[in-house]
Amino acid sequence: MPSSFPSPFELGPPPGAEGWESMYDWYHLFGDDRRAADENKFWFQDALHHPYVLYPYDEIQCECWWQALGAMNTRVFAVPPAFGLEQRILNGRLYVSPVAAPDEQIAERAAAFAERAGHYYENWDAIYAQWKDKVLDRLNLIRSLSFEPLPDREPLATVTGHLGHSAGFRWERDFSLLVSTMYETYQWHFEMLNIGYAAYLTFFQFCQRAFPGIGDQSVSRMVGGLHVELYRPDDELKRLAKVAVELGVGDQLLEIEDVAEALRQLAGSKWVDEWEATRDPWFQINTDPGHPGGDHRFGTWDDHPEIPYGAVRDYVRRLKAGEDIDRPTARILAERDQVADGYRSLLNPDDVAAFDELLALVRKVFVYIEEHVLYIEHWMWAAFWGKSKQLASSLASMGVVADAEDLFFLRRTEVSELIFDTVASWGTGAPGRGRAYWEPIIARRREIFAALDAWQPPPALGPPPTAVSEPLTVMLWGINTDTVAGWLTDDVDEPGVLRGVAGSPGIVEGPVRVVQSVSQLAEIREGEILVCPATSPAWAPVFSRIAATVSDVGGIMSHTAIVCREYGLPAVVGTGRAVSTLRTGQLVRVDGNTGVVTVL
């Protein structure tokens, strides 16, 4: 059994990917200047958010959360045990390493955190209302930007309106604004998130002290059953199905498989009006299998209307069969209160008030922990990628690049350079250098990207940690000392057994359905066990027809674990290798109480 993971300085590029470093910014790379520090750190691949090779342009998404999470943890709220998370890119994959606060600083940081986070906890509802307003304001700002092809001549209104600047200038200005707005919004992403997790961690630690041996799930079940907007997109699909049945068009939807044909045949009907009214904002749901907004290529439900349409048809079928398609929220709430009441009754009377206060705070902040995903990861990133694709399409139509997808093989700073050259050429009427300069570079990067995509990255780099205590690493990624030990041993002593995090309670047996992207969701059959890298809200419609979920990545507070608890489904998350180990059709037992998956 190996005692360590590969050193990042000993892993060379895959064949054909030589020079891959030029695709990414220098500060994201391992370098000899900081080798002494980096080689002795534990790095794990962020397969939860980025289970694939990063496009150069999409590197901005990693940059946004890298600096925002660190600043809020370290400089703004002074989270006691943890600074931020370092990032490095190796062979196109993102690796991260938690930065622990020095022991001698923890007491002072705890006092500062109590004052700063305490202000937010005391005013949570008002601050959250303001938070929604400012995020929606920036969403509208991004949507207002335009990267239409530059005109042959400005409209007369530019002159008569005394505008004083050109469409070319606006391209430059608005691209800078597009990028800086995402950076700003990501500051807000972590404004309340980490202190929300901290509140949960404080409650969790209280329960561990008060109830020795209490499981992670028992704590998490006391928080479930909340009404959060994150489930609204799926609820809207269910509403569209109910409306179709009420209007008597359900049978037509079941007969017509193609969404375009259905909308054509039902044009002018109230159901089509309802469909169109639902698209914005509830179809602005990214279909990325990792981070919901982490990659430009996947698009939204609105870009792939066959996804929501297929879900509506499935709900119509189930409604006509007399099934209840709604989430079992009442049952989850009853179980939540039953679990909380049971533990409360075991407390020393002096501890009841503290228990109730911490539980009330966790239930309050937990709404934000889930809902921010809708506002930032879906609506904001959907708008950002949409405008980026508009710019790419315009550059292609103007002949600046050969293909719109070429833009995403350039880093954002290189895109700024290309825009300047394009605008200068447009303004003077003289040829620009953009295509001639970038075309061979882009061609080579496409080759490198393909070679990197074929590489199988190790789950971690460097020496394994003696302990993992950073709260986000444990709760969100599901990485702890047992996880790391499993990566090193590859569980060779237990053939047919996968171990992970007990994400949602219950035990079921059934056939496996391996799914790696949202495009495969239509293949899932009633009662199957979903096996996937991770899930996102775009996958929500499948949770009403599967029996359980097994994921490669994620912890007790990952989306997969949370949504399975809300839908009353067993889940084992953070197995590390379920997708590569299990096969569609295999019979397995999923034990969501213990975090064990057994091949039958």
UniProtKB/TrEMBL annotation:
Pfam families according to UniProt: PEP-utilizers
All copies of domain PEP-utilising enzyme mobile, residue ranges: 525-595
Origin superkingdom: Bacteria
PANTHER family assigned: PHOSPHOENOLPYRUVATE SYNTHASE-RELATED, PPDK_N DOMAIN-CONTAINING PROTEIN
Protein name per UniProt: PEP-utilizing enzyme
